[in-house]
Amino acid sequence: MAKWWVPLLVLLGAALMTVLGHLSFTAALAVPLVMLAGAVLLLVTLVLAVLPVRRKVDFLSLAWVLAGLVLSYVGLTRGTSYRFDEMEARFAPLIAALESYHSSKGAYPESVRELVPEWLAQVPTCGGPEPEGSDARLAVDTGYHRREDGSFGITCYTIVFWKYTYDSRQKLWYGWD
C-alpha cells in the first residue's frame, strides 16, 4: 500500500505544474519533459510487471506517480491554453477599437497610438497592459502591424519562438512558428 505522502506529493506536484502553466508560457517547455518522464515510468512499470521481482514492487506508488505525471501534463497544457485565452481577452478592446476606427476613417491606423484616447483608453501590449504615463518613444510591443493590403495583424511571441497572431481578414487567432 502506498504511503500517505506519495499521493500528497503527486497532487502537490501536479498543482504546481498547473499553476506554472497559468503563470507563464515558458512553463510549457516542461511538457515534453513530463511526457518523457511518464513514458520512462510506464516502461519501467511494464518491465517490472513481467519480471519475477514483481511481488516486491509497490505498483500502487508507481500508479500514483504516473497519475501525477498525467495530471501535470493536463495542468500544463490547460495553463498554456488559459494564457492564450487571456491574450485574446486582453486584445479584444483593441480589435474592437481598430474596427470602429476603420468604419469611421475607411482605413486602419498606422499606429495604435492614434486610437488613444478617442477609441481606446489604454493600448494593450504583448506583455500585459501598458504602464501608465509611458513615453511613446519607448519601444513597447503592442504586436500591431498594418499590412500593405489594408488589413492588420496583431502578433505576440508566446513560448520561445512560438507566435500567436490575430488576422483581421479571417477574424481569428492562430498560433505559428
Secondary structure blueprint with pairings:
Blueprint: H1 5-23, H2 31-50, H3 59-105, E1 124-125, E2 128-129, E3 144-146, E4 152-157, E5 163-167, E6 172-176
Antiparallel strand pairs: 1-2, 3-4, 4-5, 5-6
What does it look like?
The chain is α+β, with helices and mostly antiparallel strands. The chain has a 4-stranded antiparallel sheet, with no helix packed on it. The chain has helices at residues 5-23, 31-50, 59-105, and strands at 124-125, 128-129, 144-146, 152-157, 163-167, 172-176. The chain has 3 helices and 6 strands, in the order H-H-H-E-E-E-E-E-E. It is elongated and about 80 Å long. The longest helix has 47 residues, at 59-105. The model has no long low-confidence stretch (mean pLDDT 85). Helices cover 49% and strands 13% of the residues.
- Give unreliable regions as ranges: none
What's the arrangement of strands in the largest beta sheet? 3-4-5-6
> What do the pLDDT scores average to?
85
Which structural class matches the secondary elements? alpha+beta
* Shape annotation: elongated
How far the N terminus sits from the C terminus, by CA atoms, comes to 46 Å
* Largest sheet features: 4 strands, antiparallel
Order of helices and strands: HHHEEEEEE
Number of helices: 3
Residue share in helices?
A: 40-55%
Q: What is the number of strand segments?
A: 6
- Give the percentage of residues in beta strands: 5-15%
Radius of gyration: 23 Å
Short description:
The chain is an alpha+beta fold and 177 residues long.
